[in-house]
Amino acid sequence: MKDTISKKEQRDVLRRLLVYAKTYRRSFTLAFLLLLSATAADIISPILVKVFIDDYLVPRQLETRSLVLLGAAYILLHLAKVMVQYFQLVKFNEIAFRIIQNIRVDVFSKVQRLPMRYFDQTPVGSIVSTVTNDTEAIKEMFVDVAAAFVQNGFFLIGIFIAMFFLNVKLALFCFILFPVIYGLMKTYRRFSSTFYYQMREKLSQLNTKLNESLQGMNIIQIFRQERRLLREFAAVNEEHYQAGLKSIKLDGLLLRPAVDLIYVLTLLLVLSFFGIASQTSPIEVGVLYAFVNYLERFFEPVNQMMMRLSIYQQAIVSASRVFTLLNEEEQSMESSSASTPTIRKGIIEFKNVTFSYDGKRDILKNISFKVKEGETVALVGHTGSGKSSIINLLLRFYPIKAGEITIDGYSLYDLTNEEIRRKIGLVLQDPFLFAGTVKDNIVLHDHTIGEEAIEEAVQFVQAHRFIEALPDKYEHQAAERGTNFSSGQRQLIAFARTIVRNPKILVLDEATAHIDTETEEAIQTALSRMKEGRTTIAIAHRLSTIQNAHLILVLHKGEVVERGTHQQLLEKKGLYYKMYLLQNGLAESHSCQPKKTQSPNL
C-alpha cells in the first residue's frame, strides 16, 4: 500500500474538486466579492491612521471637524468590514456544505452500484471512514483554505501596493520574501502529504477494527477476546498517534515558528533601513508606523496561509481516498443491446459454467444443468462445494469466467438488473432486517404494494400470528438488523418480503434453517403452494426438506458429482446416500467423500 500521493495526483484531485465547485460559481463569485470588500477595508485602515499622524498629529493641526470625519470614516470602515465578513463567512460555509453534500451522495450512490467483489476485498470500516471522515475533511478546504488563500492573496497584493506608495526602494527589497516563503510552503507540502496519508489510513483501520468488534461482540465476549482486541486496537491507535505526532512536529517547525523568524529578521532590516535613512534626512513617523504595520499585516496572512496548508493537505489526501472509491469499476454486466427481454416462464440453464472469485482458483468447474418451468432443483453438498456461488451467479452478483447462463433462452447478461431483481425472489439463511417498521421491512418502501397484498403475503407464510401479537402490529419498530425479533420471526418476515412481490423464480438458501419444527411444518405447506407455477432453486443442508425436488444436484469441490431425484440418489449409494445416512444417524464407518473411481454423472 502506498503511503503518499504524487504531485500529479494532487493536481488531479484539486481539479476534480473544482468541478464540484463550478456548480456554485455564482455563489462563489458573490462570496469572493464580499471577501475582497472586507480585505480592502482592512488595507485602507492603516492609511487613515497614517493620514491622522502625519497630517494632523505631528503638525498639531487638530481641527475638530476634520478629526471627527476621519474618526467616523475609520469606525464606519471597521463596521462595514465586520458586517461583510459575517456574510462572506456564512456564504462560504453554505457552499462548502452543499459541495460535501453532493460528494457524499455521489459516494453513497457509488457504493450501491459496486460489485460484490469490492465488498469482499474492502473492510466495511474503511468504506464508512471514506464516506464520513474523509468527506468532512474536504469541507474544511472550501471553508478555510479557499477563502483564506484568496483573501490573504488579495491582502498581500494590496499591502505591497501600499508599501510602494510609502517607499519604493523598501517595497522592492521586500520582494525577496516571496521566494523564501514559496520554498517554505513547498517543503512543508512535500513532507506533510506523507504524514497525513498515514493518518488517514490509520484512521480507516481504526474504524475497521471498531466495526469488526461491534459486529462480533457476542463472539468476543463468549471467547474472552476483549484483551486481544484491545491490544490490536491500541496498536493501530498508537500508529495513528505517531503519524499525527510527526505532523505536529512538522507544523511546529515549518509553520508559524519559521514564518515568525523570517518576520523578525525582516523587521530588523526595515528598522535598520529607516535608522540609516534618518541619519541623512528626516523621516515621517506616519510612514514608519504604516510600513511596520503593513509588514506585520504582511506576515499575518502568510502565517494564516501556512496554517491553512495543513488543512489543505488533509483535504487533498482525503479527497484522493474519496475519488479512489468513486473511480472503482462498477463492472456493469448488462448487455448494451436495445432489446429488453423479459422473464415469463423462468426456465434456467447453466451451460459449462466456470467461476472464480479471485481469478486464480476455480470455485465452480463446468457446471451444467437445466431447471424447467415450475420445477424445483435442490443443491446439496458440503461447505465450500459451490452451492452459494451458483446462486450468486444466477443473481448476477459476480461475472462468470466461462460458459453461459440463460433464463427463458436469453443470456443472463441480456436481461436488465431491474428485470432480474423483480422476477427472482431470494430468501437467505440469515435474513437482514432494516431499522424501521415491520411493514417497511416487507414492502421496502415500495408504495405500489397495497395493504391487502401485504396481509395476504403475511398469512401465506404463516407470519400473521406473531405480527398480530406485536404491540403495534405492522407498525412495530424493528431494531437494527432486527435484533428485537427471534431468528424464526426474522425469517418469516423475509418470506413475506419475497412473496408479496410474486416472483417468477424462487431462490431459497436453507430458508427454514432458523424456524422451529412446528412453524416449519406450516412453512413447508406454504412453500409447496408458493412453488406452484414458479421455478425454484433451493440450497439444502437438511436433506429431509428436498425429498420432493424434481432434481437434486450433489456438488463436491465445485463439480456436480451426482444428480437425480431423492430416490434415485439413494439407490446409487454414492455421496448423497452417505450424507443421508449421517443426517439420520444410520452411518457407521462411511466416509462422506465421493469415490475416486466414480465419474460425475453429467
Automatic annotation (TrEMBL):
SMART domains: AAA. Residues 30-314 form the ABC transmembrane type-1 domain. One of its GO terms (molecular function) is ATP binding. It is found in: Cell membrane. The keyword Transmembrane helix applies. Its main location: membrane. Residues 348-582 form the ABC transporter domain. The keyword Iron does not apply. InterPro entries: AAA+_ATPase, ABC1_TM_dom, ABC1_TM_sf, ABC_transporter-like_ATP-bd, ABC_transporter-like_CS, P-loop_NTPase, Type_1_exporter. It comes from the Bacteria. Keywords: ATP-binding, Membrane, Nucleotide-binding, Transmembrane, Transmembrane helix. It holds the Pfam family ABC_tran. The chain crosses the membrane at residues 64-84, 142-164, 170-188, 258-277. This is ABC transporter ATP-binding protein.
